[in-house]
Amino acid sequence: MREARTEEDLRLLLEPAKSDKSIGLVPTMGFLHDGHRRLIASASTENQVVVLSIFLNPTQFGPNEDLDRYPRDLERDVRLASEAGVDILFLPDTRAMYPDGPSRQAIWVDPGHLSDHLCGASRPNHFRGVATVVTKLLNMVQPQRAYFGQKDAQQALILTRLVRDLAFPTEIRIIPTVREADGLALSSRNVFLEPAERSQAPALYRGLLAGEAAVSNGERDSRKIEARIRSTIQREGPDIQVEYIRVVSLDGLEPVDRLDSNALIALAARVGATRLIDNLIVRFEDGVAHVG
Ligand code: AMP
User: Fold this and answer.
1) What are the beta bridge partners of residue 289?
2) In sequence order, which ranges of the chain are alpha helices (DSSP H)?
3) Res. 276 pLDDT band, cuts 50 70 90
4) How far from the centroid of its chain's Cα atoms is residue 162's Cα?
5) Which residues does 74 contact at the CB level (< 8 Å), separation at least 6?
């Protein structure tokens, strides 16, 4: 595995691959876990060269969010990346990604109405920061494919639209959520959970499963599905503060009253001081709902 810290280093390392090898990019913020590993594994299977980026992007954090205390362990990340089969590890610093500094970035990539709901409602510039940094990474690496997790569903949908709407020659690949045995979606932030919080956190997935059961039993009223999820979370994780539970359309991420076409059931909640998100997708085939 080779390391690059600047765009120039990266270009030099990618030069030999550019003409005849397929490149897969896995963007992350580090503190790697098995969810990231699954993305790297998919990138390795589908491409000849795998680039993993680790960059804690300041522009996707709000002023009162956890940028300063976001978990980091670069030494461990380097080891995991190498073991996972990464060919090029891109470790830019803030200057490499924002030459004039993050606050002096003039041109932004704006996801428009796709960031109105769900996490975008409480994190105003978050998806603008994500779309902008991913645009930079796509331009620097010029991969055939880029890999993102379903766990961050709104991000995945926005980036899928980004490459379509801005004509990037990159395919966005969305990888299913990797979970702990008890259902909790893996996240770098899980490390912040105190033992009592960790034991309540799987209630989020149990809530989604209750929603799935309701859909499978024919429930189509979004409010009732949301209420079913909420009551399960309240019962199984009484200290959890739900931020939102929403059924939204899968293409436009707009809230829907009735579930009769492809949709996302998404939630965000605070478990102690830690904000966690999770989701399920409902797809309709021949009028039959499949949840996953
Ligand atoms: P992060 O480092 O948290 O920004 O995540 C980097 C990438 O890994 C994003 O595309 C995430 O959606 C993805 N990811 C994070 N957690 C998981 C998970 N539990 N399962 C699958 N992908 C994940």
Assistant:
1) 284
2) 7-18, 34-46, 74-84, 94-97, 119-122, 126-141, 153-165, 195-200, 203-216, 222-236
3) very high
4) 14
5) 30, 54, 91
- Rounded Cα distance between 128 and 143, Å, is 21
Q: HEC states along 190-208?
A: HHHCCHHHHHHCCHHHHHH
d(CA 161, CA 111): 9
Ligand 1 in reach of 185 Cβ (< 6 A)? yes
Q: Active site includes 36?
A: yes
Which residue CA neighbors atom 22 of ligand 1 most closely?
A: 149
Ligand 1 mean position to 36 CA, how many Å? Answer: 6
Q: What is each CA distance from 128 to 57, 135, 140, in whole angstroms?
A: 11, 10, 18
pLDDT digits (tens, 9 = 90+) for 13-54: 999 998 899 999 999 999 999 999 999 999 999 999 999 999
| Cα of 107 from ligand 1 centre, angstroms | 26
Strand order in the sheet with 49-54: 2-4, 88-90, 49-54, 23-28, 145-149, 171-175
The answer, yes or no, to whether any atom of ligand 1 lies below 6 A from the CB of 77, is no
How buried is residue 282: exposed, middle or buried, by Cβ count under 10 Å (0-12/13-18/19+)?
A: buried
Report which DSSP code applies to 80.
Answer: H
Structure tokens at 234: 């309240």
Core vs surface per residue 80-102: b (16+ CB within 10 A) or e:
bbeebebbbbbbbeeebbbeeeb
**What three-state secondary structure class fits 65?**
coil
Q: pLDDT digits over 154-194, tens only?
A: 999 999 999 999 999 999 999 999 999 999 999 999 999 99
